[in-house]
Amino acid sequence: MSVNWFKDLKVVDLSQGISGPFCAKLFADLGATVIKVEPPEGDYSRTLGPFPNDVPDPEASGIFLGVNTNKSGVVLDIRTDIGKQILSDLVNSSDIVVESFVPGVLDDLGLGFECLSKENPGLIMTSVSPFGQSGPWSKYEASNLIISNLSGHSMEHPGPVDDLSEQPPLQLGAHQAEFLGGICAATATSLALNRRSVHGKGCHVDLSQIEALSLLPQTPLAAYAIGAPGKQRSKASAGKASLLAVLPCKDGYVGISPRQQDQWERMVEIMGSPEWAEDEQFATEQGRLDDWDRLEKLLISWTSSMFKEDVYRLCQATRIPSFPLNTAADLFDSAQFKAREFFIDVDHPVAGTLKYPGWPFHLASGSKVSMHRAPLLGEHSQDFIK
Amino acid sequence: MSGLALDGVRVVDFSWQIAGPTCTRYLGAMGAEVIRIESGRRPDPYRARTISYFINQSKKSITLNLSDPKGIQLVKDLASISDVVVENFAPGVIERLGLSYEEFRTVRPEIVMLSSAGLGHSGPDMKHVAYGTLVQCFTGWSALQGYPDREPELVSGIWTDPMVGIMEVFLINAAIHNARQTGKGEYIDVSMAEATTMLLPEVILDYGMNQRTNGPLGNRDDNYAPQGNYPCIGEDEWIGITIKDDLQWGSLCTVLGCSELEKDIRFDTIQKRQMNHDDLDLLLSKSTMEWDATDLMEALQNKGVPSGNTQTVSQLNKSNHWAYRDFFQDYLEEDDEHTTHSLPVVPWRFDGEIEASVTGQPNRGQHNLAIFEDLLGLTESEVEKLIEQEVIF
Fold this sequence. Notes:
The complex is a heterodimer.
Chain A: E1 10-13, H1 19-29, E2 33-38, H2 62-67, E3 72-75, H3 81-92, E4 96-99, H4 105-108, H5 113-119, E5 124-129, H6 144-150, H7 153-156, H8 176-199, E6 203-208, H9 209-214, H10 218-225, E7 245-249, E8 252-256, H11 261-270, H12 285-290, H13 292-303, H14 308-317, E9 322-324, H15 328-333, H16 335-339, E10 343-346, E11 354-357, E12 361-363, H17 381-384
Parallel strand pairs in A: 1-2, 1-4, 2-3, 4-5, 5-6
Antiparallel strand pairs in A: 7-8, 8-9, 10-11
Helix pairs in contact in A: 1-8
Chain B: E1 10-13, H1 19-29, E2 33-38, H2 52-55, E3 60-63, H3 69-79, E4 84-87, H4 93-96, H5 101-107, E5 112-117, H6 132-138, H7 160-182, E6 186-191, H8 192-198, H9 201-210, E7 227-231, E8 238-242, H10 246-256, H11 259-263, H12 270-275, H13 277-288, H14 293-302, E9 307-309, H15 313-316, H16 320-324, E10 328-333, E11 336-344, E12 348-350, H17 368-375, H18 380-388
Parallel strand pairs in B: 1-2, 1-4, 2-3, 4-5, 5-6
Antiparallel strand pairs in B: 7-8, 8-9, 10-11
Helix pairs in contact in B: 1-7, 7-8
């Protein structure tokens, strides 16, 4: 059986890029009927890589394919009168609209929440934008980097830096700031659904990607709330809170965290009880953290002669927290991911058959998420536009 | 509108450490009655840390000894009038306590139970000891964060725990929706490693398409150029700039007063700017260094250039924009009625309003009387006896 928690729902996805489409995908994957409405030129994410063999093709963008699974696709120019009419009709028979226009654009087209919900009072419209629907910056533009900066994430999750002026604060890699916006938009929409079932009304959901990411640095937020704001960016080893390190191996890197005393003692044993480990300085966790730069080099003298998988397996065999720094290739080979059938093969006429990330759960009912490829541009226009 | 989205939803919360409490914090803020079951025998080490002020907000706390059958019975009594169970013990623990999904389903057929663990609750490696930051390694997420020319390090802090916590709020709401439509509950076994990897389709598909292994890009982007954080006046002050097209490129040059850059043939297409990014960064930095970061953001945004300076949490609360949106909400801590604290509660609004409530983290066992007497109907003397017997403990 396929997971069909949302099988009663119809969703119109007007959004483009990553956050909005990922939000709508989460509904599509769990059983909702999702109709992706693209302008004639297509969702702009169709122009974003990666592409097979690095050849741009609007039907083979890795980002587009990844965040638009299980949707039907129609092309509609909602700037024309006929386009507006068709969209209104689609929305009238729908539960949810997801959109990511600059705030105000849909209102100007006569397709804002107020208009659309007149005919359909149960409608939930989820608007995803960088700065939110209101406020002096609402029409400002952003990117994954700008979201990372303005949310506080770049500064509040500081990495180890040797030189403040040479190493600027960092954005979240792999567009994670935008993916988080998608998760939060879907969460908000699912809350609005349950709000509707209790209180009987639809609503306009306003999700700012910056606000979403600003809730992730939880320790700095808590510290701020109680009047003890955290330290500024600095060399991380000076302020290391617990022993946690990524160390080089023969074939990559391994993360280890023997933070408790018993874990450290077992760590010393699996390293073959080297002489340096008898140093008084390393007898307590505080001592180990205080002299981290020296300790790191000593640990590396052991890990660098090992394969990352071997360090990881040796550590876990004695319950020392450790994981290798895996590549995508490693993940495809992971016995754990294979056993849980995490990756799902999805066929596509242009991009070919590729492994996609699946869903992070197993259910007692045994239902699984079925994964069907993203739509070609306008592929289902005939089915939904009469 | 009066009332909250999750009014009437009761949650039995065994969660501890970070991810689970993050999830139930949001459920509580959205109106669910979250009853956190704590243990004097196995205290949650994170309750003593600063983060607890955030992740344990908006919930109630009771204390129960789960190695005593009477404690287990009280949990079942509570579950029989609840809608959701959340737990993130190591795999196998909740079953050993006699509190598996089967047990809960017997007393409450439509209950939704979510269990999360580093690698999930099946598979050959499910028992591996996993901290969120190490799960970030396992999934390859850590390899994508950082400076391109440096060794990988755990540079981007804690990601998996809070992210998974929010994803769990979605899963629980989806399952509640289904339970309301069909009358059927569900057990959701969540793998934090898989949840983290789910957000990396770009990287996974790139490997499938091109057998390419992605590394960190620093502040750059494959699709836009230039993109980066550039120095401004003051220590550790930076302006982030993203140029998505030639129009924005022209506007950037105008605002910075570098018309010579706009004419420079090394930079006149996005491909060339990508190719000559290092040279361009040096030239741009010379100009941005003359600017105050906030002023430059305003000047650039007014010309349609995506930009934003790096901010700290306290700067967020001083910004006009977030103040206009009432993003930070005031609340009180349990033991201090005189000091107002301020934090963002939820990142979403319904019809323009933050429909959420926030209370400070509860003291351990603070709601024992309210739950055992008022909700479960035990008498005062029964509760006293259970305290004496160290069942309520």
